[in-house]
UniProtKB/TrEMBL annotation:
The keyword Methyltransferase belongs to this UniProt entry's keyword annotation: yes
Pfam family, one: Methyltransf_25
Alphabetic keyword roster: Methyltransferase, S-adenosyl-L-methionine, Transferase
Highest taxon above the source species: Bacteria
Gene3D superfamilies referenced in this protein's UniProt entry, alphabetically: Vaccinia Virus protein VP39
GO biological process, one term: methylation
MF-aspect GO terms: methyltransferase activity
UniProt-recorded name of the protein: SAM-dependent methyltransferase
Length: 211
């Protein structure tokens, strides 16, 4: 590693602490939707009128929880940040919130829709490969998975209120292969979507459990 290269291992180890320190500032900046409703509506388009939804890396719940709950769906959120979950419980007491690592999901129930918006990419590539099949197993038959991912395979960094956080991504082909093997009928990936500030969005539909 050169002197100018990021120490990704150290950055990753500190990412959860960054979110604890910056929970209030992050929450204040995330009060409003930035086009996420477009993708949430697509996620819900083939699902029951009232869905059970699992949000991985839910943060404080804003702005996604408000939108999901206002559509009449039931929401469970989990996050690794103590401060984020505390704010979520205060803001949205009708939802269910868990302090939990998405790499080790101990929930036994399944959900019509599982999403991770700006959360899943904080896992390392190794963690993502292990977590994706487990996450897929939490999706009911005919259910949907929605993720934001990286533009290509590799490591990167982002910032939360000026502090550096860890990002990682598999290749788009690998995401697709894993999820098709996990039982999804289709996987679409939309790179650099300007409707959501240039994010790359993955939508996997119609989960089928092998007989």
């Amino acid at each position: 590693m050169s002197a100018d290269s990021p120490d990704f291992e150290q950055i990753k180890a500190q990412t959860a602490d960054v979110y604890d320190r910056q929970a209030a500032a992050w929450d204040a900046r995330r009060a409003n939707l930035n086009g996420e409703n477009i993708w949430l509506d697509r996620m819900f388009s083939d699902l029951p009128q009232q869905c059970d939804v699992l949000d991985l890396g839910c943060g404080t719940g804003r702005p996604l929880a408000a939108y999901i709950l206002n559509q009449g769906h039931r929401l469970t959120g989990l996050d690794q940040s103590t401060q984020m979950i505390a704010l979520a419980r205060t803001r949205f007491p009708l939802a269910t919130w868990h302090l939990m690592d998405m790499c080790v999901i101990t929930l036994t129930e399944q959900f019509d829709a599982v999403l991770s918006w700006d959360g899943f990419f904080h896992l390392s590539p190794t963690e993502q490969r292990a977590a994706l099949p487990a996450i897929a197993s939490r999706v009911r038959d005919a259910g949907t998975l929605l993720l934001t991912i990286g533009r290509d395979h590799g490591l990167a960094t982002g910032t939360v209120n000026g502090e550096t956080v860890y990002h990682a991504s598999l290749s788009h082909t690998e995401y697709t292969d894993i999820l098709i093997r996990a039982g999804f009928e289709s996987v679409t990936i939309t790179p650099n979507d300007q409707d959501v500030l240039g994010r790359t969005v993955l939508l996997a539909r119609n989960k089928r459990t092998a007989p």
